[in-house]
Amino acid sequence: MSTPILSIRDVRRSYGRGQNRFEALKGLDLDIRQGESIAIVGKSGSGKSTLMHILALLDTPSTGVVELQGADTANLRGAALNRTRNKTFGFVFQQFFLTANASVLENVVLPMKIAGIPRSERRRRGLAALEQLDLADKAGNKAVDLSGGQKQRVVIARALVNEPSIIFADEPTGNLDSTTGAAVEDILFGLNRDKGITLIVVTHDEDLAARCDRRILIRDGLLVEDSAKVAA
Amino acid sequence: MKAPDLISSAVANTFRAKTRTLLTILAIFVGAFTLTLTNGLGTGINAYIDDTVTSIGAEDVMTVTKTAETPDDAATGPGGGTEGPAEYNPDTITSTQPGPPGATLIALTPTDIDTLKTIDGVIDAQATKTVTPDYIQAGDGTKYTVSAGGLVTGQTIQLAAGREPADTPADTADGSANEIVLPVSYVEPLGFSDNEAALGQSVSVAVTDAGRTQHVVPATIVGVAEESIAGAAPAIIPSTSLTDLLYDTQNGGLTSSSTGTGAAPDATTGASTDVERYSQASIWFDPNATDEETTALKDDLSAAGYTGSTVADQLGTFTTIINAIVLILNAFAVIALLAASFGIVNTLLMSVQERTREIGLMKAMGMGSGKVFTLFSLEAAFIGFLGSAIGAGIAIITGTLISSALTTTFLADLPGLNLIAFDPASIAIIILAVMAIAFLAGTLPAARAAKADPVESLRYE
Fold it and tell me: Which of B9, B357, B361 would you mutate first to test chain A, the one with the most A CBs within 10 A?
């Protein structure tokens, strides 16, 4: 079996200290392989968001090891860590996080701007990503003028534009009606299937979770169910 | 993120909350406007003083008088003396230096001039010959009273037409060195149609000698001088040889009353002792002398019993007052700028607050804290730039308008005074300084933005 793209060992994460100490994650082990689609499910406060943040290297575990493509990420610091996040991950959030008054294209090219890619290439690749999501005609529109579904497609274009190997989607359909939500899901799973992009979805929508290859249930900071292990 | 992208993003972000940015810019505008205007005032007045200094005297020249030996010897006026009446000193003459009317000082003799030449640092010494003409007349026209000024090497006149009088006869057109520069206010009364028409014309200058005999000396007009603040009374400026001639004539008493050129006083008349007394002398020193060297020279002079004063001494107080006033006005402007900088802090703090999620997203996407800090600092500097550039620009326009309005109205008596002048270097310094202040004000919000934790920021609703 090939090296997992993401691997965590006995990860714990606690907040506060003394009396107020709160353990969000109480020791998790997880291997995620390239090209998988994984749903992390659990109730509010179960620790699923914390887990996603740790997997996305936005947060560091209190104890435990996070390995990205077999390399310990504890050694990643500063510029190297930023570069890794920029190149490896794409993010899709429930609240979109688009800059309202900037154009759709400007929003999409933001990760490339951060990476320092030249303007002409940014434009070319940004338009290509929008084309892929049937939004090429909206490139010049202000992000604020789009519908919810269009906004989420812009967010997906932004997540795609740097050709990441992993896309993190935090409640990607939470703010969408079921029809648009289903369309957005189709796009995400299409990317997973056609481009081999690893998809990590955090949700409490069981229907969405059911569409993933693998379902992981988190409860009170512990991994209580992993469909891959059940199958195995 | 590359530097050009950082700058363009910062500029774009500045215009996102237009009203808020505009208000902050206005606050900076007030400070920058005031600072530019007060600075322009200083520049204008000081430039005028500098122009005037060269017309009062050359920078490497010191005016020397003999120091009265004891306070009650000559210098004390009536009632000021503590020991009764001053003792008679045959060398005492009426001073022509600025001071109380009737103040007297000790005359300088040729021996004193030789002594001055031996003092360390003195390059040359020359007696100042004071000429008191009775009148000036063109042809058979009306006679007008006039005073005569001197011109030493290195001193310039603000000329309206023509040139300065020649130093030596060889420099003049016809070999006679009797050239004068006429004050502009004498041009029309003397019957010349304009400044140019007066050039090359002949005038007569009359002086009265010690024997109450009036002598008329012809002179050629070579230049017309502007009036300036320094020349309180309009005075003709004769060439060196004409000054000598007039001086010898007025002190000789026995010189030929003919209109002969270059007539020397008769040395055998015994009047020479009278001639060889001067109220003051000019000494030349190294033009590159530092302030310390100039002070040392003054100390040497006083040790030898003389008082030396430079043009800078004479105008020093004036310049100091102007600089002090400008400094105080600038201080007010800086206070306004400081107040404005709190506006920048406030604006950017609100901006950071509003854009928490955006900052979080950028950090999640791999933007380093340093870049986030730079982005917000650049925004602050850009707001500072806008405020100061607009402020300076409008101040230049306003200042120029005010200045030209004043020049034609109640400052019309001071020709050459441009009350508010702008110097590109100081404008640039003001803009850069305001940008620096804005940048510093931006560091607090920028640091807050840079510190933001992406996870916390993304959770922020």
Answer: B361
